[in-house]
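As noted in the main text, all predictions were made from sequence alone. Below is one such record, for YHS domain protein.
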Amino acid sequence: MNTVKSILGSIALSVTLATSALAAGVDINASSTGLAMQGYDPVAYFNAGEATKGSYKVTATHEDATYWFTTEENKALFEATPDAYIPAYGGYCAFGAAMGFKFDGDPHQWKIVDDVLYLNLSKDIQERWVSDIPGYIEKADVNWDEIADAEPAELLQ
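Prediction:
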């Protein structure tokens, strides 16, 4: 476990955490302006099957975070059932949550499992997470109850 913490700590130092948790709630990974998912459309993962940058002209706010969308239709789908589209762990890295940390989720490193969108920090981390998705989800679900309201930097200490 100490090795994992050391590896994740090193990764965290190389990742800019400026976009994490600076909005109103630390349980949502949003920029200092409140933008979630770096402006990627959360609905597009489900209906287009790819990471698609949304538009600042088509937005919706949920839990103090702003989401961008590619179309008005995607925005309407989100507004009808936002919890169906928001990534697990508020958009933080799923592997990081499994290890008890909050790292930025990369919108390009994603997977939908059982109709839930998961983001990961990097390609290497995504590959590791894919090696035991059910196990990592189970660990992250347990950890999330304890870390959801914590500042990301607090968890590295």
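The chain has one domain: 2-156. The longest strand covers residues 55-62. These features were considered when defining construct boundaries for the mutagenesis experiments described in Section 2.9.
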